[in-house]
């Protein structure tokens, strides 16, 4: 969806409220009819003409989205590791026990590779 400037979004909404057809408005701004519909839908849902507005829930602003997920994965010139879901807080101990030993060490074993975490100093893992 092409980005409309704020003043263009305001003009678009005003034209629609003034009775101009969606097709005519889309042609005027050189956008698709879907862009016009999405702009109108966002304005109706949030009361805002901003490009990425927040939804209003019970009169309070709420960011789009929800929960999050953390995964770990590794890549080398020789291949990649599987993605490993990380549940809860990842402590240094859990990182070693649940990621480094079961996933990293086997992946680099016998390949002559050196594991270096974000340019940290070299350490040997058993």
TrEMBL record:
Q: Which SUPFAM superfamilies match?
A: Homeodomain-like (SSF46689)
Question: InterPro entries, from UniProt?
Answer: Homeodomain-like_sf, Resolvase_HTH_dom, RNaseH_sf
All residue ranges annotated as the Resolvase HTH domain in the record: 4-37
Which Pfam family is an annotated match for this chain, by its short name? HTH_7
Q: Which Gene3D superfamilies match?
A: Ribonuclease H-like superfamily/Ribonuclease H
Name the domain of life this protein comes from. Eukaryota
Q: GO MF terms on file?
A: DNA binding; DNA strand exchange activity
Q: What is this protein called?
A: Transposable element Tc1 transposase
């Amino acid at each position: 969806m092409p980005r409309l400037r704020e003043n263009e979004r305001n003009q678009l909404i005003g034209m629609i409220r003034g009775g101009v057809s969606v097709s005519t408005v889309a042609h005027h701004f050189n956008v698709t009819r879907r862009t016009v519909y999405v702009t109108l839908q966002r304005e109706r849902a949030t009361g805002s003409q901003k490009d990425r507005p927040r939804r209003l829930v019970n009169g309070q602003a709420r960011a789009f989205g929800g929960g999050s997920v953390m995964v770990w994965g590794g890549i080398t010139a020789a291949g990649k590791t599987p993605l490993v879901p990380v549940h809860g807080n990842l402590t240094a101990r859990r990182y070693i026990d649940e990621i480094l030993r079961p996933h990293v060490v086997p992946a680099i074993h016998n390949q002559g590779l050196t594991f270096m975490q974000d340019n940290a100093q070299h350490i040997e893992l058993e």
